[in-house]
Fold this sequence. Notes:
By secondary structure, the protein is mainly alpha-helical. The protein contains 10 helices and no strands. 36% of the residues are buried.
Amino acid sequence: MATSNATLPPIGKISMIGIWIETVLYGVNCVMYGLCMFILLRGGKVATLRWVLLVMCTILFLLCTVHVGASVRQLLEAFVYAPADVPDYSTTYWLDYTTMLSLLKNNLYASLVLVQDFILIWRLYVVFMIIRGELVTETASQIILAAGCVGSAYAASAISALPNDGLYGSVTSSVIIASWAFGFTLNVSVTGVIVARLWRMGRTMVSLTATSNNRFASTIYGFVESGAIFSVTNIVVLALYASNSPVAVTGLDVASQLAVWVHVVLLFSRTGSSRFVSADIDATLDRRTGWAD
Length: 293
């Protein structure tokens, strides 16, 4: 039994620390979600663009709430409700990736990715605001990437539940890496296109108004910052998974809360009083005044 204990990773401690970090981030998300609702609902009538943001932020918040609830339930099952006659149950519990709570959390994470991808593509539409050939082509390509990312994520969750493959099996590993590749490509490409578009619009307005400051600079920084944090988080989790580290699954708990933090918090706290919505309005003005190419 001593040899068996020595070969088991301290996954119980790792999971507890990871879930503790997740709960801290969830507390931050609760505060910032309330602030976002105040900003979006301020002024009575809610514009169409703000309505979309309100719904998406609420869905993200609900998903991360269910996720942290499932994590707390796992702590109870592993440490409080653990059967006394099963040795090392608090360790072996976390190594069973086919439990209902593990599968629930995997699917919740895939759903968070789905909402993130929708928000990314929606941002692309908002910034351009003109349905034309290149936008249709760009949006279609991003939808294909999003479908590949989310489809692979759900497929990996389903395959990992099979006893003959598992989370670190060859098939599951291939599907998970494909999902991360799709997601990373989508995030980088959409963020790059949006930043380039906003920068071009800002330079156009500088030349028309004879000012020296790009009015979209703060919005651009917000997009780059959120995209960078999202990409770095995914790269770290993928590296941990590729190295068969037990921290990888716990990293998904933290990543689930960071996903909400990136898409809900940064777009508002970094840009002040809803500068992103201001960019939406400016994009509409850009279309109406004919400044777009």
